[in-house]
Specification:
Layout (H helix, E strand, L loop, with lengths): L21 H5 L8 H10 L1 H6 L4 H6 L3 H7 L3 H19 L11 E4 L15 H16 L3 E6 L6 E5 L5 E5 L10 E2 L9 E3 L8 E9 L2 E7 L7 H4 L10 H21 L6 E5 L6 H13 L3 H11 E4 L10 E2 L1 H8 L10 H6 L11 E2 H8 L2 E4 L2 H10 L15 E2 L6 H4 L2 H10 L4 H4 L14 H30 L3 H6 L9 E6 L15 H8 L6 E6 L7 H15 L7 E4 L4 H10 L2 E4 L11 H7 L3 E4 L5 H4 L5 E3 L7 H20 L9 H13 L6 H24 L1
Helix pairs in contact: 2-6, 9-10, 10-11, 19-23
The structure holds pyridoxal-5'-phosphate.
Length: 710
């Protein structure tokens, strides 16, 4: 027997009444940031849990009716089930803390990093967006998300013997992803037409429950569309510029349409990066049509009520569409706004390069009075590079403010640490997490206990890596040298440095390989050995990035490093969690000031994995001299920076890690871990970030809107 609810794509066996709530739990990503939620599914069938890569829906689908019936008579399971289901319901029903203020927010982003069963992310931008939805849910902020369903996901990374990254598609399996169809009145899959775009494009709509927040995803892979249009949403960050433009039209204008047609009320529009910025045009049009505003009034209102977050310190990194492409796509559109073509195009015109085309960042900056960069340092850079675009007024609406990114603590904090928090402070730590004092209890944890947690995470990481390679070897019979380069010889007992991020030139992934003879000595130090673990994907079109990756992979194959340099294939949310918890040092060495913020170092630091970074992105705000290390010149100089990095490792990091001083653990190292774990979580929590967004933008906008209504 199968489930016949048309909104749900899954054929789960009929759940016994006693545990019927598993359906609700599995269709809400809430469980992913609740340790007992995760554990509940694992209890049900640990083998399948692993086999389905922690996907409750895939798991339930693969269980027999008998197995499910048996679970009902398992006392321990039932107790856990009751606890989790009760906690889940209380969470969902909890009154919105911010029910009146501010007004609801619609959050638009091209990607969301939520869980690996929903592969609609590529990296940092997506994880930020995912953490924002989770935190808004925890805080009871009225937010709704808009994004894209990418049937073909982002590239899955497969590295050949020669170290070259080959991409493979990782199609999303809609049958087992935690997604639901949105239905129209006739119980058909709800579909919109992107307004005034010719030829017409249609998109059907899915939803994902992120706690109390709903994320709607547009999907163009439907029969109603021409084959070429079906491919619009097929892949994240396609290099085909025409498809890219069409993606962004569907995301922005189509996404706006979804909210209107579903009657979802919201007042504030928040655009995360320029990709969804076309929503601003649709917002102008909607104000003119629904509120009878003139074009100028509508533009003014859009400016006042929309927030634009920029993420890059480089002008060249924004999307620019040439005017011919723009004209072809929008020829039926600008008239609907009562604009001339020239007026329309002027919104995206970059005065520094007026012939290049329509610039999405310029457009976002022009149309939103509420703008922000993502760290203090990025703010300085962003105001410099865009000063020619910003209005020449002498008030706050003429600059780019900043809200430094933060991370969703319940997602990224290790389960062992979370349970110590629960025991020491109780559940209320979640309310206090952005207060420095919340974290001072860490100082009281016995050094030995903390050390054991971190070393145990390292064992789990090494086991995970070996198992990943073992499975690959069993399936494909890979060259043993490749197996070694992918980490089978890693040692859970030695100092481990991790470098996991996108493989691209400005991040200098191979800086630490600058002097291989020196590195060889560091790695093979008889008494104080070191190993280095790399991971990260290159963008499929980034040849330089792929060459850097290849260089690392080939170095990892050299026998002189004895398997102590490893490259872990297919970096994603799951690998990231193992590495962040498992390594001792988190290395970050971008060319200053190219890293707008970076968030993986925050995830590492809150777990006591010490951050070793150039003073870029968030680190100038986070580093206090004791809670990690900084190095490097500004502006960056590869030779000097490599020298400084080696010196730090040789003279400070290695000696400190192996300084046991007649004890069984390195106490000074653990003290440093504690310093990071006390000083970093509150300031770099998503809670603090969302409070900044509230204080700087959402609440002032709400007050203005409420005043204008009176
Ligand atoms: C946090 C995270 C990122 C972003 O981290 P950066 O420091 O910006 O590189 C990228 N990928 C994954 C899987 C992450 O978890």
């Amino acid at each position: 027997m199968i489930n016949n609810d048309p909104s749900i794509n899954i054929a789960i066996p009929i759940l016994p009444k006693r545990i019927a709530g598993l359906k609700d739990i599995s269709l809400n990503l809430w469980w992913t940031w609740n340790p007992r939620g995760k554990n509940l599914f694992k209890l049900l069938n640990p083998y399948l849990w692993k086999e389905t890569r922690h996907n409750p829906i895939a798991m339930l689908k693969n269980m027999s009716q008998e197995e499910l019936n048996n679970a009902c008579s398992d006392e321990y399971f039932i107790r856990e089930y009751d606890y989790v289901y009760n906690a889940f319901q209380l969470y969902i029903q909890d009154n919105n803390i911010y029910a009146d203020e501010p007004l609801p927010i619609a959050y638009f982003c091209a990607e969301y990093g939520l869980h690996h069963s929903v592969p609609i992310y590529s990296g940092g931008l997506g994880f930020l967006a995912g953490d924002i939805l989770k935190e808004s849910s925890d805080m009871g902020l009225p937010m709704v998300g808009i994004g894209f369903m990418y049937p073909k996901g982002y590239v899955r990374q497969i590295i050949g013997t020669d170290g070259w990254q080959n991409g493979a598609e990782e199609p999303i399996n809609k049958d087992v992803a935690p997604i639901e169809r949105v239905l129209d009145e006739d119980k058909n899959h709800f579909t919109i037409q992107v307004p005034f775009i010719d030829p017409p494009i249609f998109a059907s709509v899915w939803k994902i429950n992120v706690g109390r927040v709903t994320l709607y995803l547009l999907d163009t892979d439907i029969e109603k569309n021409d084959p070429w249009d079906r491919q619009i949403s097929s892949r994240l960050y396609t290099s085909d510029i025409n498809q890219r433009l069409r993606q962004q039209i569907v995301l922005g204008i189509g996404g706006y349409r979804v909210l209107e047609e579903l009657g979802i009320e919201y007042s504030i529009l928040h655009l995360n990066e320029g990709y969804p910025a076309f929503a601003l045009f649709e917002r102008v049009r909607s104000f003119m049509e629904n509120e009878n505003l003139t074009l100028d009034e509508a533009i003014e209102k859009v400016k006042q009520t929309s927030v634009f977050t920029t993420h890059t310190p480089l002008q060249a990194a924004t999307d620019v569409y040439n005017f011919d492409m723009m004209s072809a796509a929008f020829k039926d559109y600008w008239g609907k706004l009562g604009m001339s073509k020239e007026q329309f195009m002027n919104f995206g015109l970059n005065p520094d390069d007026p012939n290049a085309g329509f610039n999405m960042t310029v457009f976002g900056l022009n149309m939103c009075d509420n703008r922000n960069a993502v760290s203090k340092k990025h703010c300085e850079v962003a105001n410099q590079i865009w000063s020619h675009v910003l209005p020449k007024k002498e008030d706050a609406t003429s600059t780019i403010d900043y809200v430094t990114n933060g991370v969703h603590i319940p997602t990224w904090l290790g389960d062992d640490l979370a349970s110590i928090l629960d025991q020491s402070i109780g559940e209320k730590w979640k309310l206090l997490q952005d207060k420095l004092s919340c974290w001072s209890f860490i100082k009281d944890i016995e050094n030995k206990k903390l050390w054991n947690i971190s070393q145990n995470s390292k064992v789990l990481m090494v086991n995970y890596i070996r198992d990943k390679v073992r499975v690959k070897y069993a399936k494909e019979g890979i060259d043993p040298v490749v197996a070694m380069a992918e980490g089978v010889l890693l040692d859970p007992d030695i100092l481990t440095i991790g470098f996991a991020r996108r493989m691209t030139q400005y991040k200098r992934p191979d800086l630490i390989l600058s002097d291989l003879n020196r590195l060889e000595k560091i790695v093979n130090n008889r008494d104080k050995p070191v190993q280095i673990i790399f991971a990260g994907k290159a963008h499929p079109a980034d040849i330089v990035g792929k060459k850097i990756l290849q260089h690392i992979f080939k170095t990892a194959q050299e026998s002189r490093f004895g398997g102590r340099i490893a490259f872990i294939e297919d970096y994603g949310e799951n690998v990231a969690k193992y590495l962040i918890h498992g390594v001792d040092v988190w290395l970050n060495n971008p060319k200053i000031p190219m890293e707008a913020c970076g968030t993986s170092g925050m995830k590492a630091s809150i777990n006591g994995t010490l951050h070793l970074s150039s003073l870029d992105g968030w680190w100038p705000e986070g580093y206090n001299g004791e809670n990690g290390w900084s190095f490097g010149e500004e502006p960056s100089d590869d030779t000097k920076d490599a020298e400084a990095l080696y010196e730090l490792i040789e003279n400070e990091i290695v000696p400190l890690y192996y300084d046991y001083e007649n004890d069984t653990i390195p106490n000074k190292w653990v003290d440093k871990m504690k310093e990071a774990m006390v000083t970093i979580p509150s300031e770099f929590s998503a809670r603090r970030m969302m409070k900044d967004y509230l204080r700087k933008f959402y609440i002032p906008i709400s007050l203005t809107l409420q005043k204008s209504k009176k």
